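Subject: for your reference before the review

Hello V.,

The reviewers asked for a structural picture of the protein, and I figured it would be easier to keep everything in one thread rather than splitting it across files. Below is the amino acid sequence we used in the manuscript, unchanged from the supplementary table.
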Amino acid sequence: MRSIIGTAVVALIAIALGFETGAAAPAFTTRYAYYKISGENAADVYISMLKRGPHVRGEKAYAATLMESSQSGKLQQTNSCRMINYRISAEFTIRLPRLADEKVLSPSVRSRWQQFSSFLRKHEETHRSIWMGCAKEMEARIGRLRANNCNTLERKAQAIRDQIQKACTRRHTAFDAAEQKRLSRHPFVQMVLAPIYKPIKTNAAAFATKKRKKSAAALFN
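And here is what came back from the structure prediction:
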């Protein structure tokens, strides 16, 4: 199962795990992947992210996290049915921008870019942490389940998954909503949108500036 966990644009987590019997699943793992960007000033770097960055639910994003998850365990029927060694495992791939050459940036732009890069990484890692917390809650609650028969237990387990999935989605959404304000006020973003980075106001240049601002606003909503 492949799921997208959103970035500054949206938050989405979909858990639709197929049941497998077997040994306990391994711990969560994370891989970092980078897409290359370039630019000699803040505006150019920003535009490069828009052109080369990932998409989340059809929207442009600065960063994204791909999650592949599975579950394992064993149904045991004695006087009642229970789940033995129920575990959820996940492999996360966090995709982030990487500037080809930071040395071409002025010291002030470079400093703010590095802050922004760290901001994106922490944002994605927080989405990962939210999901991991939800997975641990699933493990605990499903592991405590008992039922007269295993068919009933599986229905109860699915109901728990659905309930936690909805709650987890709300957590991601709330986190992104709070992050939007921080994002719009971030020093790097402010530098991109600052008047000193606007082109000379010819008609064509004014249109380009307006278009860049509109793209930025879309990422903040």
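For the response letter, the relevant points are probably these. Helices lie at 42-52, 107-143, 150-184, 187-193, 203-220. Residues 2-184 form one domain.

Happy to draft the paragraph if you're swamped.

O.
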